[in-house]
Amino acid sequence: MSWERARPLTKIQTTGQKVMILIPHKGESGYRQWERWWRNDLIKLPGTAWFEQRGLSLTTNRTGLITEALKSDAEYFFFLDDDVMGPNNLLTTLLSHQLPIVCGLYMSKKRKEERGLAAWMKVRSNGYAAIAPEQAARMVQVDVTGLGCCLLHRSIFERVPPPWFVWEFGGISEDFYFFEKVFKEINVKPIIDMSLKCHHIGTFLLDVDNTFTTLEI
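^ thats the sequence. predicted structure below, dont judge the formating
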């Protein structure tokens, strides 16, 4: 199975849509709003399963989750960070696109003057710029996106050799490393569904329009 760079929206042939949700927890406790949303409100197809891993580095958690997921018969892996909340139809909408990599949209957690959408295009040999919130199309191909709300076909990990996630001191983060390697190895880039606007939360909720709301912990 292969995907061509010139045809990023070509759907893949699928025999089923078994999904494994992968949650790399950043700490020992989570946010109540996120817990209620993900367990009770996020629509999941029958037979959807999930793995959760915590207590280790983000790169170790992501690698461990993928390693376990590859032992299953799931066709799609859905990375969902424990600080990203989206519309209730988030997962089912991503699945409907039948793309190798497709993601929701959320704001990056950075200082206000550096903040932008967690979806970037390469602008020079070693630099990236966040895409604008307003796009001409609903489905937008980017060079890098955050992994906090990202649906991936299992063949991505079958075709790209490990390590998949690396974050060295002073280097690029694990999501930049991953997407740069995927493109280098198999010429596939992520697609953003601009209609799937998600919240990035902490002790606050950060919306895609850059507004804050204080949350309970």
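The chain has one domain: 19-214.
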